[in-house]
Design a protein that fits this description.
About 25% of the residues lie in helices and about 30% in strands. The chain is of the alpha/beta class. The longest helix has 14 residues, at about 245-260. The structure holds zinc ion (ZN) (2 copies). One zinc ion binds near residues 12, 73, 74, 176 and 239.
């Protein structure tokens, strides 16, 4: 079981709690990638709350966190991430510097400060290390056993795409992202090429997208195009729009599968082994 992916939050923009968001889930972006016992968490949306409880039950104290960007839906769960409040926990948080020069550490510091939150970040007892980088830098993780590549994504205020390679398996995370120029798409094709799993921002239907150009999100049609161009083995549609109830999501997933059977709509709680 070299690589196991679990979706803890698949929704975009804001958590949705309703009877119509039970099948696909209402929590925002959070994905766990288990690499033979090393835990990587991508994004700290509201889904990270339940992940934190699960990690504690599994006695996992060492977490590598990758933050795509600091829009609310990707960081709002961090103040409720149980391991952050444990002295025994060691959290390595990787995030690209924002286009305005701010670091994620500064943004997290604001998130966890009055009047937004009662406990300032410097008071939380876990060991926190922030790793600040420029998008497109590459890293090796876990004593060279895993390779981490990054690239900037087209999105308001910027976002970072990630690709993890481990023992011949690869997972790419492309959220939040709006398909742009042919040159930009070609660069992304190289980045995600031959991924075993690509997690892709498909917030809008192709019809909705016509009204939301420039908002920084993409569609299942673009997911299918990229899957085909980059020879991706499996693609998870991700960052579902809050208005997309379970009924709408079922239709979106069917339309996407008709375009390419390698596509599926990620569901909260779903796990995959690569
Ligand atoms: Zn988002
Ligand atoms: Zn965003």
């Amino acid at each position: 079981m070299p690589v196991k992916i679990t979706f803890w939050g698949v929704r975009g923009s804001i958590p949705c709690c309703s009877a119509e968001h039970t099948v696909y889930g209402g929590n925002t972006s959070c994905v766990e990638v288990d690499l033979d016992g090393e835990t990587v968490v991508i994004d700290a949306g509201s889904g990270i709350r339940a992940l934190g409880i699960s990690l504690a039950k599994r006695s996992i104290n060492r977490v590598t966190m990758l933050v795509s960007h600091t829009h609310w839906d990707h960081i709002c769960g961090f103040p409720f991430f149980y391991p952050a409040f444990q002295e025994t926990a060691n959290l390595n948080i990787h995030a690209a510097r924002l286009p305005n020069g701010q670091t994620a550490e500064e943004v997290f510091g604001v998130l966890m400060s009055e009047p937004f939150f009662p406990l300032p970040m410097h008071m939380i007892p876990s060991v926190l290390h922030f790793h600040d980088f420029k998008p497109s830098e590459s890293f090796s993780l876990f004593d060279g056993r895993a390779a981490l590549r990054t690239r900037p994504l087209t999105h308001p205020n910027g976002a970072t795409g990630y690709r993890l390679d481990y023992q011949g398996k690869s997972v790419s995370y492309i959220s939040d992202y709006e398909h742009s120029s042919p040159a930009g798409v070609a660069e992304l094709v190289d980045f995600v090429a031959d991924s075993d799993l690509m997690i892709f921002d498909a917030m809008y239907t192709p019809l909705e997208y016509e009204s939301f150009k420039g908002w920084g999100h993409s569609t299942w049609r673009e997911a299918a195009r990229l899957t085909q161009m980059a020879n991706v083995k499996k693609t998870a549609l991700f960052h579902h729009a809050p208005l997309h109830t379970d009924d709408i999501m079922r239709q979106i997933e069917q339309d996407a599968k008709n375009a390419d059977p390698r596509l599926f709509a990620a569901r909260e709680g779903q796990s995959l082994i690569l």
